[in-house]
Every structure is written in C-alpha cells, then in structure tokens.
Amino acid sequence: MLKRLQDAAAYLNEKINGLRPQIGIITGTGLGDITALMGLMHRIPYSHIPHFPIPTTESHRGNLLFGETRGKRIVAMEGRLHAYEGYSPDEVTFPVRLMSLLGVKHLFISSAAGGLNPNYEAGNFMAITDHINFTGLSALCGPNLELFGPRFPDMSRAYDRDLIRTAEKIACQQGIHLHKGVYIGVLGPNLETPAETRFYRNSGADAIGMSTVLEATVGVHCGMRILAIVVITNVNLPDCMGETSLEMVIDAAKNAAPALALLWNNIIAEISV
Questions:
Q1: Cβ contact 15:41 at 8 Å
Q2: Are 92 and 214 in contact (CB under 8 A)?
Q3: Tell me: the pLDDT tens digits for 222-232?
Q4: Per-residue pLDDT, 117
Q5: Is the pLDDT at 148 greater than 60, yes or no?
Q6: Are 44 and 64 in contact (CB under 8 A)?
Q7: Minimal CB count within 10 Å: which of 74, 98, 135, 223?
Q8: Using an 8 Å Cβ cutoff, are 231 and 113 in contact?
C-alpha cells in the first residue's frame, strides 16, 4: 500500500510542479459544484494516476483537480469511491492517504444522505458531529502505516469542533439553517427497509449514507482536521416509507449543490491553514 501511494504521489508531484495543496475536498453524489468555483490549475483523470481506483457510480466523475479557492491551495475529487462498488476499504481511502502525502491538513467531505431525524426535510444541510460505522469495514485493519498515524487513533473528536462552529456562522450569514447530527454509514448499495430505518434511528443516527465514515476515519489517522456536511436528499419515516430512487437522490442533491458550494467557498475563506 505504501509503495502504491508513493508511486501515485510521485506522479502527481511531477504533474503539479510541486504545488502543495492545503485542503482536500471530497464531493458526493450530485455535489460537484464546489469544483466550479476553483481557480483550476490541473485536472488529472484518475485513470492516469498510478494505482488510483476508478468510480463506477453514476454522477461520479473521475478527476483529481488542483487549484486555488479564496487564497487556499485545493485538491478536490470529482467523484468518490464506495465499498459497495466492490472496492476494499484501502482502495476507498486511497485518495485520502494520497492527499496526506501531498500535504493536505484539512479534509472537507460532502455527501448525499437520507434523513432519519423526523425534524429534517429534503434539501436541508447537516454538519456531522459524530458517526457510527455500520459498514463492518475499516481501512485501518492490517499492518499499521506508521508514516500516517498511530495504531489506535483516538476518535473522540473525529469532526473538528472549531470548523463546525465556523460552518454554523457562515451558514447563518447565508440564511441557511445548518443542522448538526450523527451520521451512520452503511455498506449499501440497497436502500434501507422500514425496520432497518427504525433501528438506525433508535441507534442515535440523524442521517444515513454509504460513504464518509471510512474516509473520515483514515483522515483522523492521518492527523487531518475534518469537516463533513451532508445534504439531506430524502427523509425516511419508517411508518410511512416512500420509494426512493438514485435519480431522486441525484436531483435533490443537484438542487442543493449551488448553495452548498457557496457555503464551502465561504468556509474556506474564513479558516486559517
């Protein structure tokens, strides 16, 4: 794994002429608008990067973008990877470790999520304050990569509290009500049954999705400060469940994407790196 990561980093460093990105951004389903606000310097297809996995999910492009936003150097993923595509946890989190090798210290994650909290509505935003990993997977299993972090990383503050406060302040200025809540990550790709929905809600989760927890855990292992904001694309109420399709999720995410992109842009302007 370390050799594959070093190969990929060497390739990218040659392509980007030694640019040291400060912030890494992972965009989720239908949420790639933030990349349009970048002063783009390099767009590198995943397929050109040694050992880099290729997304297979609809709406996930396969490019790594380098540029600047609000005076900060950025590397952003156009398209992410999921375990339900058949990728191992190491492959899903390969980009996060690669970002760490490139110099990234702040990791911003966006994703589409189903709402479990009955007070949420489709189109709402939620900052993740904590997560439950219900995937049964971890990218930290196996030999520890000491270059990145300790064998047993502490997860008591996985999501940076100062960054969450900054996000709340910026959201208020934009007239956005930013919920705060717990995200539960599941393997997928099937959506939840009513009984599962009730179980997940009773476990303390406010939103559910098929990403984020593996990347966030590896980000913590790498010593990154993490902020994750999800778009609630639908609300699952177990006693009156409606049918949900990928197309519905993508449409809801795309409708919310411009506001989320502006929110990220203004958060980036506010933070110190």
A1: no
A2: yes
A3: 999 999 999 99
A4: 97
A5: yes
A6: yes
A7: 223
A8: yes
User: Where do we find the tokens 């639908």?
Assistant: 234
The pTM (predicted TM-score) of the whole model is 0.94
The predicted model gives 80-90 an average pLDDT of 95
Residue 112 · residue 212 · CB < 8 Å: no
Looking up residue 225, the CATH number of its domain turns out to be 3.40.50.1580
Phi (first) and psi of residue 76, to 5 degrees:
-130, 140
The residue range of the domain holding 215 is: 2-270
> For residues 262 and 169, is the Cβ–Cβ distance under 8 A?
no
- From residue 85, how far is each of 53, 88, 109, 133, 210 by CA, in Å? 11, 9, 19, 18, 11
Residue 263's nearest CA partner among 180, 173, 179, 129 is 173
pLDDT at 59 over 90: no
Q: What share of the chain in percent tops pLDDT 70? A: 97
How many domains is the chain partitioned into structurally? 1
Helical H runs in the chain? 2-15, 89-92, 94-102, 161-173, 194-202, 213-221, 246-270
What's the pLDDT at 238? 84
Query: Strand, helix or coil at 179?
Result: strand
- 101, 6 contact by CB (below 8 A): yes
